[in-house]
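quick one before i forget lol
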Amino acid sequence: MPKRFRLTRRFPVSMTEDGYRRLRKFAQQAGLDEGEALSFLFENFESVTNGENLAARLRLFNSELEARKR
């Protein structure tokens, strides 16, 4: 039996313009709204990410994070 799609949480999110544009583009290509696209990505996180690339990108993002907040 498939999981019932029910939005159970709402949370404030800060995103960069580039990140939000990419989310909207992905959602549009997949035929989803932004919330559904985020749910899909996080429910399938390990299968849609490459562990080595993720670690490297995360280190880079974290090193630039303070500068981005200014």
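fyi The CA atoms of residues 20 and 34 lie 9 Å apart.
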